[in-house]
Here is the input.
Amino acid sequence: MEVIIAPSTGEASAEAARIVAALIRAKPAAVLGLATGSTPMRLYAGLIEMHTHAQLDLSQVTTFNLDEYVGLAPDHPQSYARFMRDHFFANVNIPPGRIHIPDGLAPDLPAHCEAYEAAIRDAGGIDLQLLGVGSDGHIGFNEPTSSLGSRTRLKTLTEQTIRDNARFFASPQEVPRHVITMGVGTILQARRCLVLAFGGKKAQAVANMVEGPVTADVPASVLQFHPRCALLIDEPAAALLKRSSYYRWVHANKPDWQRP
Ligand code: F6R
Here is the structure.
């Protein structure tokens, strides 16, 4: 795994936006896997900025979001569909027909999850999957002990994730207990993964993910098996890494041809 420690959240997000934009410029019909939450917000702002001022054209891009709360309609203020519209889709030119987000109101959830997997396959698979990390080590909403081979399905959130995400709701009681999420196996099939993690609250999860054993107890640790996974973090999120000086050394000595 490539670990990039940036001096600030802003610089990490700008670097992540450059990586995504470079992919889109090289492959205009790229298939992106997208995440919600606090972590990628500045990355999305960076892409909007490039779309508005630097001719970044997203008209051929296809997107698949990682997850959605069960029971929330797409226009619910806390739904991930609404988050994506407000923070990204409303300000770029991805055609609505190319945008895919699990439907938290699907009447037949298992069938919907299977259809979501089929849609990813039909689109040719995901070129680049963006990921945040939960403070309990989840990716997507694959909570600890998720099968490392899992596919898109219904999951029950941990109490810790409910507490973490309660900041977006009026109270923890309002956070849905269930979600639809791409599986760990689905995520591993993306051709590239780009993981972002910011702040001291993520430091333990980051250390477990990068330097701990691969275990379903920390679903993000399975990314150690991914052939092309980059992790972009700020200093507080890097605080518990044992080999941080090596990661900085590698990055400082990276050949120019490997940079976005
Ligand atoms: C969101 C998602 C989650 C978040 C994670 C971190 O689509 O898949 O795994 O990335 O819970 O959330 P934030 O960024 O709010 O700390």
Q: What stands out?
A: The chain has a mean pLDDT of 97. Residues 35-39, 66-67, 132, 134, 138-141 surround fructose -6-phosphate (CB under 6 Å).
